[in-house]
Amino acid sequence: MKHNFNAGPSILPKEVFEEASRAILDFKGTGLSILEIGHRTPLFEDVLNEAVALVKELMHLDAQKEVVFLQGGASTQFFQIPMNFLTKEKKAAYLDCGVWGTKAIKEAKQFGQVEVVASSKDKNYSYIPKVYAIPEDAAYFHYTTNNTIEGTQMHAIPQVSVPLVADMSSDILSCEMDFNRFSFIYAGAQKNIGAAGVNLVVIDKSFAETGNLSLPSMMDYRQHITNGSMLNTPPVFAIYVCLLTLRWLKKQGGIAAIEKYNKQKSDLLYSTLEQLPLFHLPVPKEDRSHMNAVFTMHDPILESLFSAKCKEEGMVGVKGHRSVGGFRVSMYNALSLDSVVAFTQLATEFSNQHAS
Asked: In the CATH hierarchy, which top-level class contains the domain 14-252?
């Protein structure tokens, strides 16, 4: 049996794979594959409309919020957001808590002034800064809600008086929050929403209207809103997989239910590792991610042995990101508690065997 702890593209529900595979051969009894249906036909329009409706329902979005599916992944949003909302006359505020925030800052600086209000670089991004001031004249404040590489997560929405922009790629739909407080949310699909190849954007209508008027059509959010995610040919199959995953999430009881399940998984993993002397958890408790747990071992020699044992036992994707090393266990929505139990049992047995 395989236990998929990959950080992304990552595990999806088995029933989503099964339904998607049937649709590749025959979509809804049409004799056509989902890969070949016309994107402007009622067949796909129903898929897109239901996916948008489910996002609004699950996130409890108000009427002021628009939902669009875009190509390019979250990294495209690093430059598309400042391209729309930042000019040479304005500045934007950013929180620097890891690799993805750093990349977003780099892209934003091409379009205007960027003020980094706080950074955790001084301790290798192992914590979330708590005290910082956001300029009241900022065009927006941008932060990453969950840092997949560093294993940190923001567990509260910052109190701000400017438009709030969040990269939620790795924890969207995993925990309850007031999504309506955000002017702009974006998330690559390949963690909790669906397959790689599509990006979910939730944008406040009034915020969208403040965008730069001199933009290529494909970069203008207003154009995507007006055209209902079909300004060009959308990634049909990726959106369909999103729809199936959103249906699955609703069937589980929605975000509130999955949050409880996710906490069960992360509580079990962290409490187990805390009790095992071979392992080191670099992130303080209050900042630990419920999605991506990172840890190292005090003895580097044992790391290679533990990696080999994980591979032998079907534990996939536990190697830490190449930039930080160590280990990473990703626990996205579709990961079962049974997989976390299996990993903690393996870690405990290994620790008992090698403890001095």
From this structure: alpha beta
Q: What is the pLDDT of residue 258?
A: 98
- The pair phi, psi for residue 26, each rounded to 5°, is -155, 110
Confidence of residue 1 (pLDDT cuts 50, 70, 90): confident
Q: What is the pLDDT of residues 184-198, one digit of tens each?
A: 999 999 999 999 999
Is there a catalytic annotation at residue 167? yes
- Catalytic site residue from 65, 91, 96, 167: 167
Nearest-angstrom CA–CA distance, 17 and 32: 18
Domain with CATH 3.40.640.10 in the chain: 14-252
Domain spanning 254-354, CATH architecture: Alpha-Beta Complex (3.90)
Let me know if 191 is a catalytic residue. Answer: yes
Specify the 3-state DSSP secondary structure of 119: strand
Measure CA of the first residue to CA of the last residue in the chain; give whole Å: 31
Question: In terms of residues, how long is the chain?
Answer: 356
Q: Model's pTM, two decimal places?
A: 0.97
Write down the catalytic residue from 191, 204, 265, 319: 191
* 251 flagged as catalytic: no
